[in-house]
User: Fold this.
Amino acid sequence: MFRLTSVLFLIVSLFSGIGPAEAQPSVPSKAYSVPVILYHRFADTSSNEMTVTVREFEEQMALIKKEGYTVIPLKQLVDAYLGKGAFPPPKSVVLVVDDAHRSFYETGHPIMKRLGYPATLFVYPSCISRASYAMTWEQLREVGKNGVDIQSHTYYHPNFKVEARKQSPADYEKFVNDQLRKSKRVLEEKIGKQISYLAYPFGLFDDVVERKLLENGYEAGFSIVRKSNGPADVKTRLNRYLIVPRTSLKEFKRILETSRAS
Assistant:
């Protein structure tokens, strides 16, 4: 497998954040940055750049507790940008997982559940109960009843940068609209809850994606820009730290420490 992480970081730097940002509700000036920590897959050994080992994951989760951080639901962070709640206090951290790989059900979720950590799972529904690597609808509903917030990752995880280049503007706009609308509709029908957040595939978005996000009733969008979320950030461009294999505890602690006064 090619080094997907390097590609992700490159295309994010070239493409993320294009387009006008919507003005956000004011956030109290005395606020703190909140890191959103992103995982994909879990295994005893790692064979690619998206899979962290079980040992690494357990050590990172234990460090959160040891260092006195509080894992908060993603909703608590988003609500601050929507004017529905106060900005989270210092030493807050959010945990999210992309893709609904079956290793989340088998390994990641049990560890988080044992520690009492809430998590958000971003799902592209085209793979559910179909791809051999993916969770089933029954498993998604099960974790949804046990502290996991299910949200959207588009319908089949396209690369919006590639699609924008090969399609006409009108076709591209329709394509984006279909990806966002269909994912939201299918997830809401299958899971039985409102879908409000979108994780951009590969962290990529542009002004069309950002606009269609809001037009289709999403409240927040998430990239993979490696920084914490503070008062200056906006709801359609929230940031996430992608955790890759061999991330040292020293580096993980540094990420946690970005939860500081802004």
Strands lie at 36-39, 41-43, 51-53, 70-71, 92-98, 119-123, 148-152, 197-199, 220-222, 241-242. Residues 1-26 have pLDDT under 50 and may be disordered.
